[in-house]
Design goal:
The complex is a heterodimer of chains A (about 325) and B (about 300).
Chain A lengths: L5 E12 L2 E13 L4 E5 L6 H9 L7 E3 L2 E4 L2 E2 L5 H7 L4 E4 L13 H10 L6 H14 L5 H4 L9 H13 L5 E5 L7 H17 L3 E5 L3 H7 L2 E6 L2 E7 H6 L4 H8 L49 E5 L2 E4 L14
Parallel strand pairs in A: 3-9, 3-10, 7-8, 8-9
Antiparallel strand pairs in A: 1-2, 1-4, 1-5, 5-6, 10-11, 11-13, 12-13
Helix pairs in contact in A: 3-4, 3-6, 4-6, 6-7
Chain B lengths: L1 H28 L3 H6 L5 H11 L5 H13 L13 H36 L4 H15 L2 H15 L15 H27 L2 H8 L4 H13 L1 H17 L1 H6 L5 H10 L3 H29 L7
Classes of the chains: A alpha/beta (about 325), B mainly alpha (about 300).
């Protein structure tokens, strides 16, 4: 229990594009213990999904991934061959994707796809796999589970399909589950249900979870740890309490101003926005990527940005020692 | 599924009836059949006598009904030229054509599908380039020219294969290649395009995320979805091969149904031509039906439609 389940140091992802190299993810560090929930937040294109795919070894062939350390329960993922990765994927680490409508194979039954997840990794018979599939469908709250096995994806609604995806990811009781915006494509009324289900099951099975989302409300409710990503960098990490109550990085504070907060945001008051757009990441990226949109940008922001550690487990990157927190009015 | 099959079967029968009527009427569009039969030197009385003898004086619908009702019990009339029952004439010739067609489509599928899959796995690789070259060459070369080149090389210069006839399996090698190579490019390109599209889909990523091997991903999850349009195309190609292998049959002197059709048209042998048109259309109908059923089995979403 002393060493974390997942340890990532200096993860970098480069994508070759027409005009050079897109430095999509740069120098990401984080640890995740068993049973812990890490939420990665950030806007679209900040590299959240790429980071999760990199952990699973599911980046496309052209995309280059490097890391000084990337360990899953002592297994060095940077050196793992494809056979080792295949054995891990679906068994000890599983993933739930954003699009339930297209993430299931239209040509096979729900039962076939659920059972496959178990049969690939466990030496069990079809009957046992079938029983397990029924058990998990019931667990994710699907009624008439047994009769669903012979149904095809197109016969189910989006919410049901995402429940099936969750059941599929849980077939082998993984130690780590990565959910990449699992509720974004769903109806708002279903979103909360699915998320609740995922988090409850995660706790029940003592799974570590990486939840990628841009819904800060969700993060506040479920996260143990929060990592804020901006333009391919982790600008701030810490416990949920630290990041929400003592946000250090100007970007984190900007994000938090964008959502209404009970007791803090006055009725009728304008919510905050962050002006500007995400910088182009093609070619070398130096300095702070947020400086073009930051109220506190100074000349030094073009240089290397120091890592700061205001408290245990709380880290951020900014030239200002306190992220220039004091210069802003209360959040 | 059964419901779907019955629906498609009903549809196929309706199409067959329509086609039979059209093919029957077509023969009357090419002029007075009695005059054609009697020949250029015949007197008006002879033409009239022939008209009555063959029943051309009756209303067309009556003639159609007469023809159709005997066709349904296997009697397709008597060939004017061979003086033999058309049904036995066609049955004999069809053996060659069907064998050739089956060999041709098998050759096409067995080369095109693996090549298309290989090309899609590594687009722009050397395999992809070779596949592209082969398919462009296949599309550009006329069958008769390719057939003649094969005969020149393998029969005349090397002496490995017989140039014509149907006596042994070796006689079928070159015709199979010529016929199959004609269908290969389209099937190959469609397989490649389908695989490329499917391989970038999210359910393929899901399969990989489950820990499926590359083999399972390709041949269970991807190919089954990519092959669906190929099935429909192959069915049409197969129908074409059975009905339209006239060129190949003439080059290699295979006395098949395509060759018979060509002969009969030249000889104004009405009953034979009518029967052949009917048989060829029935092939199309049967293969379309089979491909619909196969596709519905492959893709559950089609079963509803």
């Amino acid at each position: 229990m002393n060493s974390p389940l997942l340890r990532v140091k200096d993860l970098t992802i480069d994508i070759p594009v027409g005009g050079g190299t897109l430095n999509a993810v740069r120098g990401i560090d984080f640890d995740l213990n068993r049973g812990e929930t890490l939420c990665i937040v950030g806007e679209s294109g900040s590299g959240k999904s790429l980071t999760s795919l990199a952990l699973m070894g599911l980046l496309g062939g052209r995309i280059k991934r490097t890391a000084s350390q990337m360990e899953f329960d002592g297994i060095d993922l940077t050196k793992a061959n494809s056979k080792t990765m295949r054995a891990l994927r679906g068994d000890r680490m599983a993933m739930i994707f954003q699009e339930p409508m297209t993430s299931l194979n239209p040509a096979f039954t729900i039962g076939n796809q659920l059972m496959e997840a178990l049969l690939l990794h466990r030496n069990v018979g079809k009957e046992a796999a079938r029983a397990r599939a029924i058990e998990l469908l019931e667990k994710v709250g699907i009624t008439a589970a047994e009769s669903r096995l012979s149904q095809y994806p197109h016969q189910l609604s989006g919410g049901l399909r995402q429940r099936v995806m969750i059941a599929m990811a849980l077939m082998c009781e993984p130690e780590l589950i990565i959910a990449d915006e699992p509720t974004t494509a769903l109806d708002v009324t279903i979103q909360a249900q699915i998320l609740r289900l995922l988090v409850d099951l995660g706790r029940e099975m003592n799974m570590a979870m990486i939840l990628i989302t841009h819904d800060l409300g969700v993060v506040a409710r479920v996260a143990d740890k929060v990592a804020v990503m901006y333009a391919g960098e982790l600008v701030e990490t810490g416990s949920a309490d630290q990041v929400f109550n003592a946000p250090m990085h100007p970007y984190t504070r900007g994000l938090l101003r964008c959502i209404p907060q009970p007791g803090k945001t006055e009725r009728g008051a304008r919510l905050g926005t962050i002006p500007g757009i995400v910088p182009n990441l093609v070619g070398g990226v130096t300095g702070c990527p947020f400086r073009t949109r930051c109220d506190h940008a100074v000349a030094a922001c073009r240089n290397a940005i120091p890592h700061r550690k205001p408290a245990e487990n709380h880290r951020f990157r900014c030239v200002h020692e306190t992220g220039h927190q004091t210069a802003e009015t209360v959040v | 599924m059964l419901n779907f099959i019955l629906k498609r079967l009903g549809l196929a029968v309706l199409v067959a009836f329509t086609v039979s009527f059209i093919s029957f009427s077509l023969m009357f569009l090419s002029g007075d059949p009695a005059a054609a039969l009697a020949g250029e030197t015949a007197s008006d009385q002879d033409v009239e006598a022939i008209r009555v003898l063959y029943g051309f004086d009756r209303p067309m619908l009556v003639q159609y009904w007469d023809w159709l009702s005997s066709a349904l019990v296997g009697d397709l009339g008597e060939s004017y030229y061979f003086k033999l029952p058309v049904s036995s004439l066609i049955a004999e010739r069809l053996q060659v054509t069907m064998l050739l067609g089956l060999c041709g489509i098998s050759f096409a599928l067995l080369t095109a599908v693996p090549l298309g899959v290989a090309a899609a796995i590594r687009p722009n690789s050397i395999i992809d380039r070779i596949a592209l070259f082969l398919s462009v060459a296949g599309q550009a070369m006329p069958s008769f020219w390719f057939g003649l080149i094969l005969i020149v090389v393998f029969s005349i210069q090397l002496g490995w294969l017989p140039p014509s006839g149907t006596a042994t399996w070796r006689h079928f090698i070159m015709p199979t290649i010529v016929l199959g190579y004609y269908a290969m490019p389209a099937i190959m390109r469609l397989t490649r395009a389908g695989m490329l599209e499917v391989l970038s889909s999210e359910y393929i990523r899901t399969a990989r995320a489950k820990g499926a091997s590359e083999f399972t991903v390709l041949f269970k999850h991807a190919l089954r979805n990519a092959i669906i349009p190929v099935v429909s195309l192959a069915a049409v190609q197969m129908g074409f091969m059975l009905g339209g292998s006239i060129v190949v049959e003439s080059i290699f002197a295979l006395h098949g149904a395509g060759y018979l059709a060509w002969e009969s048209i030249a000889r104004n042998d009405l009953p034979t031509v009518q029967a052949l048109i009917l048989v060829f259309s029935l092939f199309y109908i049967v293969f379309t039906f089979l491909s619909d059923v196969l596709n519905a089995w492959l893709d559950p979403r089609m079963r509803a439609g």
